[in-house]
């Protein structure tokens, strides 16, 4: 009854997992069989199932479940009914509530009869893995569209976008959520978080835990971030092409963080874990993505008296691109209308309640500017909506706002389209067409190579040519490098200041391989 081709795993959409374990989804009926020492007598014999999860299972916290044998099933609760009996074997139909904590449960059977009381010996081979259920209307991760469920839960390969909004690149990522051992590793990650399994029934809580555990900053999570360009102590972030190797290395080394990752790797692994546990998820790229360090909802650029950037004050940043995740769930903890897609981010940028994590943040709240709603809405709002404010230092040390730019961040927000390998632009889910309110700044992976000043007498159109030679910036290039051009000027007659910044990336040539004759595969080694 636990085989991948059996009725249980087929109906529960768990037949793709490469394991013989008994994997089911909460809130949905499943079948199981019990072999007894003699035929079951419903008049004189009593029988119930016991399911336990976590280090200290208790009934009060929902980590120990006593499943009674009832005459008829009602639904929406833990219950079992005998549907077939042949000799010493009895077949049960079992229901679970859609709020059950996910995890690995130890299963035993307790019987009581005239002759006494007995409890079966626990057999790890009969452990029950319970997952979230996007096919169950009562589950808070329920997703109505079958096409979207196939994409956001069952698809194990995807696309991750990078580059700039004018030069969008893409890479294939192998999520591999059904590969052998990955489900056990995902539960291992939850266990290593030290959070109580009693909270693993709430997807809001679970995604916050996973968001923290994908990065290694404060809890020995999966991946160590590195943006230095020096990866000699580990693996370059650009080498990874999927999540499986990262997760297996983390598990094999007993939760020693894997070196190294950047935003796309954090997001790719996050998608794997969420889909594996049954939470619909997708990988999302935001171009010109702001990083607001002071919750000001603006990107502040500080310039000195000569209009040169004051680097130690410019702590806000705008990344040429940043990758995070959306996950799908209801939000009963928020006002009505905030369910659906939620932004979550595992890249360690800022702390949330003392831990490096982000979300879940309702996209509806971000789009409508409800920055007072949890979790981390101001930060996500600033990533996609932000005015860039330029400040100039005065002789007395104070600053004046000299210029502002609107609509500079949050462009071409991208994810893989449902059912195809095309890019889907979902910017409209994050912001209104004309933008909202904002705050943030620009830099990581950017390099400032040179400064040029000149006095111009402008005609209506003046073209200023400037050459930046390779020798001037070659030593500052790192993976995914972008260059940022800062232009600032003052009108002598009016003393009006104008300023703007423009980012662009250096694109490596496409590699195209052609063979001159017909080629066939000779051997495949796995």
Automatic annotation (TrEMBL):
Matches recorded under InterPro entries: Ig-like_fold, Ig_E-set, Papain-like_cys_pep_sf, Transglutaminase, Transglutaminase-like, Transglutaminase-like_sf, Transglutaminase_animal, Transglutaminase_C_sf
Family, per entry: Belongs to the transglutaminase superfamily. Transglutaminase family.
One Pfam family matching this protein: Transglut_core
Record has Phosphoprotein as a keyword: yes
Record function comment: Catalyzes the cross-linking of proteins and the conjugation of polyamines to proteins. Responsible for cross-linking epidermal proteins during formation of the stratum corneum. Involved in cell proliferation.
Residues forming the catalytic site: 263, 322, 345
Official protein name in the record: Protein-glutamine gamma-glutamyltransferase K
Gene symbol of the encoding locus: LOC101075988
Subunit structure: Interacts with PLAAT4.
SUPFAM superfamilies cross-referenced by the UniProt entry: Cysteine proteinases, E set domains, Transglutaminase, two C-terminal domains
Record-linked Gene3D superfamilies: Immunoglobulins (2.60.40.10), Transglutaminase-like (3.90.260.10)
Entry's Gene Ontology molecular function annotations: metal ion binding; protein-glutamine gamma-glutamyltransferase activity
Biological process annotations from GO: keratinization; nervous system development
Residue ranges occupied by any Transglutaminase-like domain in the UniProt entry: 255-348
GO cellular component, one term: membrane
Coiled coil: none
């Amino acid at each position: 009854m636990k085989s991948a081709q059996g009725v249980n795993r087929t109906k529960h959409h768990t037949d793709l997992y490469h394991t013989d374990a008994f994997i089911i989804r909460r809130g949905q009926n499943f079948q199981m069989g019990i072999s007894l020492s003699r035929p079951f007598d419903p008049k004189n014999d009593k029988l119930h199932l016991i399911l336990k999860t976590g280090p200290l299972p208790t009934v009060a916290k929902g980590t120990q479940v006593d499943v009674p044998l009832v005459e008829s099933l009602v639904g929406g609760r833990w219950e079992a009914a005998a549907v077939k009996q042949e000799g010493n074997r009895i077949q049960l139909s079992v229901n679970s509530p859609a709020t059950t904590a996910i995890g690995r449960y130890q299963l035993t059977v307790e019987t009581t009869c005239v002759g006494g009381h007995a409890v079966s010996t626990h057999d790890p081979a009969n452990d029950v893995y319970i997952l979230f259920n996007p096919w169950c209307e009562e589950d808070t991760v329920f997703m109505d569209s079958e096409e979207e469920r196939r994409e956001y839960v069952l698809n194990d390969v995807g696309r991750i976008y990078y580059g700039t909004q004018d030069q969008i690149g893409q890479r294939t990522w192998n999520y591999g959520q059904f590969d052998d051992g990955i489900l056990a590793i995902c539960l291992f990650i939850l266990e290593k978080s030290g959070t109580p399994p009693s909270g693993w029934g709430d997807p809001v809580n679970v995604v916050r835990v996973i968001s923290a555990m994908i990065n290694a900053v404060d809890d020995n999570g999966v991946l160590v971030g590195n943006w230095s360009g020096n990866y000699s102590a580990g693996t370059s972030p650009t080498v990874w092409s999927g999540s499986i190797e990262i997760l297996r290395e983390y598990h094999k080394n007993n939760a020693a963080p894997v070196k190294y990752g950047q935003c796309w790797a954090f997001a790719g692994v996050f998608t794997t874990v969420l889909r594996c546990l049954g939470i619909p998820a997708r990988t999302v790229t935001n171009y010109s993505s702001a990083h607001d360090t002071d919750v000001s909802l603006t990107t502040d650029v500080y310039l000195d008296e000569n209009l040169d950037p004051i680097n130690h004050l410019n702590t806000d940043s705008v990344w040429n691109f940043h990758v995070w995740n959306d996950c799908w769930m209801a939000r009963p903890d928020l006002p009505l209308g905030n369910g659906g897609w939620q932004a979550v981010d595992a890249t360690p940028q800022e702390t949330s309640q003392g831990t490096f994590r982000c979300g879940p943040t309702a996209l509806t709240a971000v789009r409508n500017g409800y920055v007072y709603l949890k979790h981390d809405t101001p930060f996500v709002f600033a990533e996609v909506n932000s005015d860039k404010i330029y400040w100039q230092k005065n002789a007395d040390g104070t600053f004046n706002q000299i210029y502002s730019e609107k609509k500079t961040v949050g462009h071409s927000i991208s994810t893989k389209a449902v059912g195809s390998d095309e890019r889907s632009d979902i910017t409209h889910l994050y912001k209104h067409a004309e933008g909202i309110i904002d705050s943030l700044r620009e830099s990581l992976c950017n390099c400032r190579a040179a400064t040029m000043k000149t006095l111009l007498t402008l005609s209506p159109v003046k073209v200023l040519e400037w050459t930046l030679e390779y020798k001037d910036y070659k030593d500052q290039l790192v993976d995914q490098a972008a260059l940022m051009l800062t232009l600032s000027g003052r009108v002598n007659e009016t003393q009006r200041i104008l300023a703007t910044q423009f980012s662009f990336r250096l694109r490596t040539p496409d590699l195209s391989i052609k063979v001159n004759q017909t080629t066939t595969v000779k051997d495949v080694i796995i």
